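Input for the complex:
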Amino acid sequence: MSVDAETALAHAPPGHKDELRLWLRLLTCTTLIEGEIRSRLRRDFDTTLPRFDLLAALDRAPEGLSLGEVSRRMMVSNGNVTGLATRLEAEGLIERRARPGDRRAQLLRLTAKGRREFARQSAAHEGWIAELLAGVTPVERGALFRLLGHTKISVRNALPPEPSA
Amino acid sequence: MSVDAETALAHAPPGHKDELRLWLRLLTCTTLIEGEIRSRLRRDFDTTLPRFDLLAALDRAPEGLSLGEVSRRMMVSNGNVTGLATRLEAEGLIERRARPGDRRAQLLRLTAKGRREFARQSAAHEGWIAELLAGVTPVERGALFRLLGHTKISVRNALPPEPSA
DNA sequence: CCTCATTCCTTGAAGCCTAAACTATTCCAG
DNA sequence: CTGGAATAGTTTAGGCTTCAAGGAATGAGG
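Predicted:
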């Protein structure tokens, strides 16, 4: 196809290598932190990140959430939430409750045990994150937070629009 | 100092809320981008991100990589790589080759078909990332890259030391 | 009333992922 | 040489995840 190796190299990437390197670094940071959090959740609480995330979502919504709402907040598929909720219900951490006036929907709520358990996990989790980010100064954290805000907007704008929201 | 709402807010959590918010935003950005990339890889190439990542690792190592090396570079378990390699080998994109002098190890290499296929996917992938990050200015990208470098170091320092490296 | 689109959830198939147990091979110290 | 530690990969059980197909209930028009 191409004339020689140099030509191929020169025109293949129109200069998008910077964005790629940024993305790879972003991914590495997230993967490192996430992996450590998963590992500690397993070690200290014998649980998983998705379970923790689901409990966290319910903890922020004392009135309860439908499976669909949980699915949107966690950014995972609805079928995924079904299985997750089934396991957490079996462990007695959450409960399914029919929503009055709509027999399709159900509300998920933390049980008392679930609230207790999440409080323990949540406190540890917060400490872990602080520990992992301890080497980043408050000023840097502020700058990162702001820049990641821009990044989020950039990505959202490039994404296909959601059905409703 | 004093006993008012401000004080209460200030001491209840030892001040780790900032780190937590930063982490959640970092996670959101990564999840958004990653989800879109997964979706496009499926739509345009009928493949997945782990497959793409494995091909990328092999593309950067023309001499081939052992399963263990791939496992370390992708930061996934070794058992995971076994299955991934099996599927990619079945599709004819990579090949297993015995390593001379060590009957335990094998080298994974891209086949000609694998190289062709990865080149197509890689070009598209690079464009997607550039598209998603188009709303972040070059200056901001530079700052982000640097700050994420600090973050990576901070996390690595807080992590349990690896066996070897 | 119907009917049809929509919403909420579940199921099933397939793939990704980990930890832990296991096999085979290599390396090393005695 | 030989026994045991270390290394390379595989396997297994269980959980996470998606997509696609489908069942049940709701709601809006005719």
